[in-house]
Amino acid sequence: MNTESFLDELSRLYPDEKLLTKPAQLVTYESDALTSYQVRPMAVVLPETQEEVIQTVRLCHKFEIPFVARGSGTSLSGGSLPVTNGIVIALNRLNKIIEIDPKIRIATVECGVVNIDVSLAAAQYGLYYAPDPSSQLICTIGGNLAFNAGGAHCLKYGMTSNHVLGIKAVLPDGEVVEIGSASLDSISPDTVGLFVGSEGLFGIALEVKLRLLPKPEAYRTVLAAYPSLEAAGNAVSMVIAAGLLPGAIEIMDELAIEAAETAVQAGYPRDAVALLIVELDGETEIVDWEFASLMEVIEESGAGEIRVAENDEQRLQIWKGRKSAFSAVGRISEDYLVQDGVVPRSKLSHALGEIERLGDQYNLRVANVFHAGDGNLHPLILFDGRDPANLENAEVLAGEILKMCVNLGGSITGEHGVGVEKLEYVPTMFEDADIDTMIAIRREIDPGELANRGKLLPFDK
């Protein structure tokens, strides 16, 4: 590895303002949203074209320099954490929406396009992009693809993988490939499915074809308050048992409610121990019929207070509190860990009780916000970052929650990915043979493990 020669060649590709090497310039890129992990990269490059990205990757391959692709840095698992003696390829400037084709309902976009901007561009055609992670106002399509992001409406509409049709990517050796197509059907191996959710281990997606959906004719959004998390969890089971498939079913606990109210004044009932948000969407006639059934279920479930959004403004206000919950917790605790695990929906109540017990055991407060419809938990563990022992307790508690998810038949991640944070828990979910197979596939594509080294899979195995 000849670092000096590599940087010399990199400087021929990028002017000074797009090649960052000074310590003060690199600080911003030392971590992503998981700020408890920090690594200073050798350099950061700011490409503005796909060709610049391709040439950068080819240089990394030539000099055996590891690289990390980064969008807006919203990863909560350390997925875009730099690699020691590696570089960061920051992709925010690749933000062109290349085409919106309303006839076949496809958007072709570059990897640095912000999630919400796809829907804004498609709105004039009555279309939108369904995956809606909480960070959709800032997170990029490339990052969504890397971690298979979901969001509040994934119960009905699925994850990013259900909406990516084709990918133009540069592989770790600099080869440019195009996988998938504009069609939902394919007779070839599902290489798009392999790439989506691979956390950057197979290279960098440069351009993506996304499936667009018609905007629903109608929405009915209901907010229900409950005296306990168990009661709210039971209400979720009752909704699903009634044969309803809402666009979204979300739960927030007392601490998350407090945080949201402090931050954005969403108007939530302050005496509620748990809030349930259920949203129906689709054709007006069907939504009206489902709404009548939903209200019967909610009333039967023992909700203390029920609110129905009467217009778009009220609907968006309900969602504003939920969407801001992660960042809002910063108003009541400067330091917190956001965990991400999945349990079977039937085990929700048990899982929430166990999280409460574990919080008491480690003397830490835990705010719970989660996609209740598919059992995707997002416990936020509050701690005092000035106390190393407190941080250590928080990390141990986070690990106990992940192991609980696996023991209940779930997963160590729903949409945040493994990154670096959950590496040690991969063996709790997969056998050695499974891990060896995944590593073999990765090394077939990237023998030097240059692309996002140390994420998702162990590097030194």
Describe the structure.
With 461 residues, the chain is α+β, with helices and mostly antiparallel strands. The chain folds into four domains: 3-90, 2-Layer Sandwich (Uridine Diphospho-n-acetylenolpyruvylglucosamine Reductase, domain 2); 97-214, Uridine Diphospho-n-acetylenolpyruvylglucosamine Reductase, domain 3 (2-Layer Sandwich); 218-321, Alpha-Beta Plaits, CATH 3.30.70; 328-407, Alpha-Beta Plaits (2-Layer Sandwich). It has 16 helices and 19 strands. The protein has helices at residues 3-13, 23-26, 50-63, 115-122, 141-147, 154-157, 191-195, 229-241, 254-264, 284-300, 312-323, 325-328, 348-361, 388-407, 426-429, 432-445; strands at residues 19-20, 43-45, 67-70, 87-90, 97-101, 106-110, 127-128, 164-170, 176-180, 204-211, 213-214, 218-226, 248-253, 274-282, 305-308, 335-338, 341-342, 366-371, 376-383. Strands 12, 13, 14, 15, 16, 17, 18 and 19 form an eight-stranded antiparallel sheet that branches. Helix 1 packs antiparallel against helix 3, helix 8 (229-241) runs antiparallel to helix 13 (348-361) and helix 13 (348-361) packs antiparallel against helix 14. The longest helix has 20 residues, at 388-407.
How is the secondary structure organized here?
Elements: H1 3-13, E1 19-20, H2 23-26, E2 43-45, H3 50-63, E3 67-70, E4 87-90, E5 97-101, E6 106-110, H4 115-122, E7 127-128, H5 141-147, H6 154-157, E8 164-170, E9 176-180, H7 191-195, E10 204-211, E11 213-214, E12 218-226, H8 229-241, E13 248-253, H9 254-264, E14 274-282, H10 284-300, E15 305-308, H11 312-323, H12 325-328, E16 335-338, E17 341-342, H13 348-361, E18 366-371, E19 376-383, H14 388-407, H15 426-429, H16 432-445
Parallel strand pairs: 2-4, 3-4
Antiparallel strand pairs: 1-2, 5-6, 6-10, 7-11, 8-9, 8-10, 12-14, 12-15, 13-14, 13-18, 16-19, 17-19, 18-19
